[in-house]
Amino acid sequence: MTPAGRMGRLRERRVRLIIYVVLGAVLAVLCLFPRPFMARAKVMPGDNNAASLFSQSGAGSQLQNLASLFGDRSATEVTLQLAKSDAVTRDVVARLKLVGPGRPYADERSAMVALGKRVDVHSLLGGIIEFEARAYDQDWVLAVTRAYVDAMSDRMSSYVRNQVSRKRRIVEDRLASSQERLVQAQAQFDAFRKANRIADPAAQLGEQLTVRAGLEGQLQAKQVELATLRTTVGPENPRLSVVAGQVASLQAQIARAANASEGQASPNVGAISATALAYARLYRSYVFAQGVSDVYSRAAEEIAVQEILSQDRAQLSVIDAPHVDPDRYFNTTAVAFLALLVAFAVFVEVYAPATGLFDPGAAARGKGAEAGPLAP
Asked: What is the pTM (predicted TM-score) of this model?
């Protein structure tokens, strides 16, 4: 290469280096300014389960079993979906007054899209929901985060009230039906006793019959509960295995009662007359109806407490109040362009000359010089 060619290449490289330095300085400034701010808030669904209150009086396990009849969804997933819903975003737009004449956005949809780009809602370990808002205005991101927390609290309150109202309607309907069935079973039972002049079941039928009838009534009630659980909760719910075990235990006890012999203090079921068998069937139906009525009565008590708790608007427990992070954040777009510029400069100024990528003739000359006099 002639001296003039070498000087030309040096001038070109000097110009490129100046361009790299200028662009790098501009991008470095843009990485820091304008300064982005990050506002955060952490919330958690409030504990409004009535069973937790009754557990202090020894009835918590029963009420938790009743709650499983209505389905068991993850509170964290439900809360996360509510936080990301359009209803919450619209509420935030209305609270911040982002739409209208003289406002930042002309229509609601544009404001919702802009919020979706600036705000991130995700879940953390422990069932915590975190709101993150990022922008260049410190006061604006803090206001957006507070608006999301307030809107989510109102939406959660409305959701809980709707759920409790739905459960209350179901329980009241089933409770009325179970009480009507109990009244009918008790009337048939009392009428049969009077017609056949039968005394108290424990004195008339003996211990075996009373235990057998009671166990069969409990078994039918548990079978109803098991069937209800299979249609309302998933197969992984631990309550299914508990109720299935109780059904198996009651069936085993009934089988042992049926094998009682005549030599015992009380007769077994096989030695009872047709009248006694009819009496046993009525008594079993009565015990079953009473058990079902007790189940829905306890459920009604739980729903009543939940309805009282649902009137409280504080359905979210604020773990970390809305605040602006003190950490320094960088503009990710400028950082990405700066990294791309550095990679481009290394490629053009180091990698390409070393491999002869832009000048194949120079690479060939280099190889020839290395070969020396042995080259053909």
From this structure: 0.61
